Structures are given as C-alpha cells and as structure tokens.
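Annex B, item 7. Sequence and structure tokens for protein A, then protein B.
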Amino acid sequence: MSEITLHPGVRAAMVSDSLDLLGIRSNVMNFEIKPLDRNMKIAGYAATIEFAPAEEFDPRDPYGPAIDFLDTLQAGEVAIVATGQVHKSAFWGELFSTAAKRRGASGVICDGPLRDVIQIFETGFNAFGIGTLPYDYKGRMKVTNTRTTVTCGGVSVSPGDFVIADIDGVVVVPQFAINEVFAAANARAQGENHVLADLQAGSTVREAWNKHHLL
C-alpha cells in the first residue's frame, strides 16, 4: 500500500466532490452510519470482513474467523464490517477495538450496531456504526468472508480501496482512482482556504465564485 499525503483540511465532503469529478457519484455509505463521537475521523485502506445470520457456532472457537481477521490488520488499515445492515447483534466492541488499535489500524466502519461504547471511547479508537446493541454476535451471526469485496452501507468496498470518514459520512475511493482523487481533494482543500479568507474579508459569494470557481 502506498502512503497517501493528505492536506490537513481534507474532509469527507471534499473527497466526495473529487469523486464526482471522475463520474463516481455513488460511493458514500448510508447516512445512518455515524461516528460514536462527532470528532472521530478515519482515513486508511480497507480491510473487509463480512457477516451473515447464523445460529450455529463452534463452541470451542466461536470467534475464530474474527480473531484471525483481527490478527491480520496492518498499520493504516480500516476494518470494514459488512453486516447486510442486519441488527440482530453488535459486531464490534471494546476488545476488538483494543486489538485493532494495538496493530495500528485507523478505525472501524460497521453498517450494523456497536457495543461497549464507553470502553471504546477509553481506548481512543475511532468507530463508526449504526446505533448500539448489547447482544453478542455468537449464535446470531457468523463471519462468512474476510478480505474480499463486500457491500457495506450500500457501497461496494474492496481490500485496498481508501476510506475517509468524519461526521459528514463515509466515502470510499476505489483503488484505481486513489491518486487522482486525492490530488483533486488536496487542491480543493487549499482552494477552499482562499475562498474562506475572501468571504471572511467581506467578499460576496458571487465575487468569491467568480474569482475561484469553487464553493
């Protein structure tokens, strides 16, 4: 994975705008996926895991596939937890967060519930999901795939895609478009700084637009 240089002002909305320029207009996840805290932000490469409803489990190793997935996480990766938006259980909590942070992961994005919210706060790990639920997934859901292309929050996500998330939402950048999208997003962040400065100095919106062609 190549390292991405991001202007400090780049936000999810700017990345979405940059995808629009390439005609990629449907790569923002479901608006119901929210950070546990409004200040949480995530940027990194997708590492995917997929769940499906199931009552059976191995009583000797009920979390085996999830454990194996967690132990493969690399620095700078984002755990993408695809659940089919089935809310039969939570899918991520304190211990998974602790393990993922220890391995250098950037955060988790789940299109289902989370749990152990206070404890996740205490780990300092960035977590996005749809609500919270105390239920364990054992006996309710099972891991069906890891590190394959999944649908999370209505968006197709493949390992190696780049994900950026903040309070505005979650944006997925396909691997083939990463360099072009982030070049455009970095330029937009710099340009918006100039627009903001002009507006704060008293320019009208029309004057700012005519000068920068950026809003």
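Protein B:
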Amino acid sequence: MAIEWEIHGLQFGSCNCDYSCPCQFEALPTNGDCRGFVFYRINQGHFDGVSLDGLNMGLVCFFPGPIPEGHGKHQIFIDANASDDQRQALLKVMNGEEAEPFSNFFCVLAALCDESYDPIYTEIDFQMDMESRTARCSAHGLGESSGEPIIGAAGNKHRVQICLPEGIEYRVAEIGRSRCKAQGKIEVEVSDGYAQFNELHLNRNGVID
C-alpha cells in the first residue's frame, strides 16, 4: 500500500550559474558544470503519520555537465533535532522514495546521481522572505548561503520570476542573486550567482498547486 505524505513550506536555492540558470530549462550550465546548495523549511508536513512540522533540511549537489546527462553527486543534510522517525521520513522523501517515478525534483535528482554521500545531521538556520527576495541560511559545519534581489545599473531592485506550469520543483519562483560556500564532500563557492526563492509544496504525485 502506498505511503501518503505531504510537505508545505519554503525553498531557497543557490548555484554557480548566471541569474537565468539554464539548468531550469535543461540547457548547458553557465560554467559547464552545476554546483548547487539548497535549503528547505517545512512549515507543515507529514509522512505516514509522522509529523514533519517545523523541520529544516537541504542538499548539496554537483553535476559535471548538463543535469539531464546525469553522473551527479549529492549529499543531504537534516535538522539535528529531528527524531529517528522524522529522519527516516525526510530521507525517503529526499531520495525520491515513496513517490511516483520522476514526479518531483527529488526523484529526478536521485535518478541522475551516481553517488549519494552519507547524510549529515546538523543545526540548520533558515531565514527567507520571498516577497523581498532575501535569505540567509546555514548548516553548522557545512556552509552558509545568502540571497538578495538582482540590482540594476541605477540601483533598482529587479523583480524577476520563472514560471513553469508543469514543473517538478515549483510553479513560480522568484529569482535573485546569491553568495554561498559549502565545504565537505561537495564543495561549492559562489560570489555572485543564481538565487531561487519558491514555495515548497509536494506530495507523492508531485507539485501541489
């Protein structure tokens, strides 16, 4: 019998692509490879009766070329204060288990990675305001990431969105600029890259509108 689950919250992602991030459209990454650092906040969620409310999680990933070509690596990190049941639930969600094949971003990522490093359980701080396009997130001992609006030549704050009505990660994302640094199994260092601010709303069938 299929396990039912749902998570609803926020997502802040940063990567080494330009502000437009060609990876969003399955094109060649700006710099040839893709290095991403993503944080998630679950405001409300459950997995087979296990509450996931208030938990944070994230992942670091690397792809040597276009993401659809695969050969990626990724590492998941989860709130240190999550219980054993919550940890197992989040690992199943983030490893693409208990979901329809290729129905969400986690399923696709897991299928395209040749190597998945052991998960890290650590203190995670998640601060994000989607309306202002600002964020400051950190995972103790792993790294930190921040985001802000794209600033125009006149000092104006650009409002930019990517809309993917049939997307497997989100429907609409606010776009900004990021700075981040992750160290460990997968290293990421970005001084002025792509930032993505979006609602996180998934179940076993994919994105919930």
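Comment on protein B: The mean pLDDT is 96.
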